[in-house]
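Severity: low
Component: inverse-folding endpoint
Summary: output formatting inconsistent between runs
Steps to reproduce: submit the following structure tokens with default settings.
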């Protein structure tokens, strides 16, 4: 590697660029590292390796692969970032959990409050991390497109179907790639370079969404992605990639932040077109 990343932002960019060339174990470390910044900053090598599901020596090999002499140098980048920034999403979630008693989580109202607080933290994180330039770029692409095609399956289908609804409500041509009859490939074939594809996918990333996105990119179709990691298989091909960290309560992941982002894009486009919906 020609230059060792000097900041966490540079390291994240380098990881994203090099992700496809990493070994399976190093990819595992990269994904854990990007998704758990507080744990990397404050954890011991033994704890981090156990949580990441790798041998401690793999952390050292990961650091070496990016030009560092040891994993402690990687940790210092995360620690410095926490000093300079406001509390991260993970820290906010930890605080929210601490505020709610562990006893009585089976009480419906307590459980509701748990979800509410976790989603508040996730939405605040969304507002802190989504770049204005990315929002403007995405709205530019949507405005220029002849039509917008949206794909998202399983959990992501909720966001995809809402976004299609919202765009139609502001008189935009919007088509949901729903794969009826297993016809994802056939529906993808109708997308042209004058259109835009919005692909929404969260881990584990749906093969159907990846197939539609791949087919669109091969025809030079602009790709707007909503996903949950910088190393999502969709990220490297995206014209604009939004990384959204959703709230998770008792392993049940929310969709509030992704829906909020989709709504903001639709209303932002409506303002651009001076076509604000009545509802």
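Observed output (run 2 of 3):
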């Amino acid at each position: 590697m020609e230059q060792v990343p000097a900041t966490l932002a540079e390291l994240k960019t380098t990881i994203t660029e090099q992700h496809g060339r990493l070994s399976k174990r190093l990819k595992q470390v990269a994904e854990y590292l990007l998704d758990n910044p507080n744990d990397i900053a404050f954890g011991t090598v033994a704890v981090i390796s156990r949580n990441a599901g790798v041998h401690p020596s793999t952390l050292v090999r990961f650091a070496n692969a990016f030009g560092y002499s040891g994993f402690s140098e990687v940790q210092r980048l995360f620690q410095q970032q926490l000093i300079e920034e406001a509390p991260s999403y993970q820290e906010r979630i930890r605080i929210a959990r601490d505020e709610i008693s562990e006893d009585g989580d089976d009480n419906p109202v307590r459980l509701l409050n748990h979800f509410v607080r976790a989603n508040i933290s996730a939405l605040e994180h969304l507002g802190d991390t989504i770049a204005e330039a990315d929002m403007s770029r995405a709205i530019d692409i949507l405005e220029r497109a002849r039509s917008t095609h949206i794909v998202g399956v399983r959990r992501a289908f909720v966001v995809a179907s809402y976004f299609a609804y919202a765009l139609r409500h502001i008189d935009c041509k919007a088509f949901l790639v729903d794969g009826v009859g297993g016809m994802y490939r056939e529906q993808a074939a109708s997308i042209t370079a004058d259109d835009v594809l919005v692909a929404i996918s969260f881990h584990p990333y749906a093969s159907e969404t990846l197939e539609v996105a791949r087919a669109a990119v091969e025809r030079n179709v602009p790709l707007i992605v909503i996903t949950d990691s910088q190393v999502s298989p969709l990220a490297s091909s995206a014209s604009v990639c939004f990384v959204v960290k959703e709230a998770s309560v008792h392993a049940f992941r929310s969709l509030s932040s992704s829906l909020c982002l989709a709504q903001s894009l639709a209303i932002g486009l409506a303002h651009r077109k001076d076509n604000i919906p009545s509802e």
